[in-house]
């Protein structure tokens, strides 16, 4: 809180006053007339905004002043976007200007934005409704003022790029209160006559007020209803109007509109020149190849008498070759027949010698079979005798027995027996079960 009894310096007072002003007043628009305009060497611009009853000092710093698209002059009515402040060193009340616009432009911009939004919502700007431009228009219509410098630029460009094209001017006012209706009427007339392939709506640059006719709804709807495709070339590159959005194509300038309209013809001229050069080269190459082929064929040309002599010589050569070939073939067949006859003579069977060998082989076979049979019988007898000697039943028949414990294991050592153990005795005839009374290992008798 500020203490009223406290003593403050002038600089402190000015600082608090500046802070209070900037806190109390946000950025706002102020309208007035420019007066006392001064441009400093630093680039800053100083002036006053005044009306009938008062004035306020203003400063616009260099970074802000450079963005103004027109030259500031005394007496201009403007609307300033300003920050209310105080120049502390001198205690001067001043407005720090952020941007400027000509008086009334705020309302124009608002009207522009409202109409743009409404027409866009209706679909007048939609890409789907844009009509394709003819690549090779036969006749071009121009909507412009006959006195406009932009019309002269367009005509010069059309003559330079496509001098054969016919041009029809549909005159219309491009500035003023009745300009919008005049432009719309010209567009409607051109569409009704249907004597052009393409329409150019053109005008040079200017302020938003100068170009306002092209922001009117009547012009936008005339373009949208036109049966002819439309190129908009209104203003400079930075200017944008409703006409640009509704037209089938927007050009940055009137000259650019003429260039776009003649792009097909202009590029076709270059393409034709390229094709002509390519065709000329192709013809020259073809002629050169055919001449070379003719040179090669001429080397193969021979007089008919010479050709006949060559044919007779070749025929004689072929005849001698045929005779020699037949003689060689006959000799080959004769030799083959001789070889076959010799082979047949060798292949005749010798019956007596073959029968003798057969009888001798039969006798040897019988002898070998009888010897082999005797050897097998002797071997069989020896095996039978050995098997009889090893037969355990023959051993049992001599009074021996086989002893097994209750689990079936063979008992061969008394050390493996215990008193009272049950054993099984297998004899030559039958078997018996016995119990061990005592068992004496080694060679002592075992009682049963």
Structure write-up:
The mean pLDDT is 85. This protein has 448 residues and is α/β, with parallel strands linked by helices. Helix 4 (149-161) runs parallel beside helix 8 and helix 5 packs parallel to helix 6 (217-225). Helix content is 48%, strand content 19%. Strand 9 (230-234), helix 7 (242-246) and strand 10 form a beta-alpha-beta unit. It has twelve helices and 13 strands.
Please sum up the structure shown.
The chain is an alpha/beta fold and 448 residues long. It has helices at residues 10-24, 62-65, 105-122, 149-161, 179-193, 217-225, 242-246, 254-261, 263-300, 304-346, 351-390, 392-397; strands at residues 28-39, 45-50, 55-60, 77-87, 92-102, 139-144, 166-171, 198-203, 230-234, 249-250, 402-405, 422-426, 431-435.
Keywords:
OB fold (Dihydrolipoamide Acetyltransferase, E2P), Rossmann fold, 48% helix
H-E string: HEEEHEEHEHEHEHEHEHHHHHEEE
- Report Rg: 65 Å
Q: State the separation between the terminal residues, measured CA to CA.
A: 138 Å
What percentage of residues falls in helices of 4 or more residues?
40-55%
pLDDT < 50 runs, ≥5 residues: none
Q: Tell me what the CATH architecture of the largest domain is.
A: 3-Layer(aba) Sandwich
So what's the overall shape?
elongated
Total strand segments: 13
Structural class: alpha/beta
Largest sheet: 5 strands, mixed, barrel
The CATH superfamily of the largest domain is identified as: Hypothetical protein af1403, domain 2
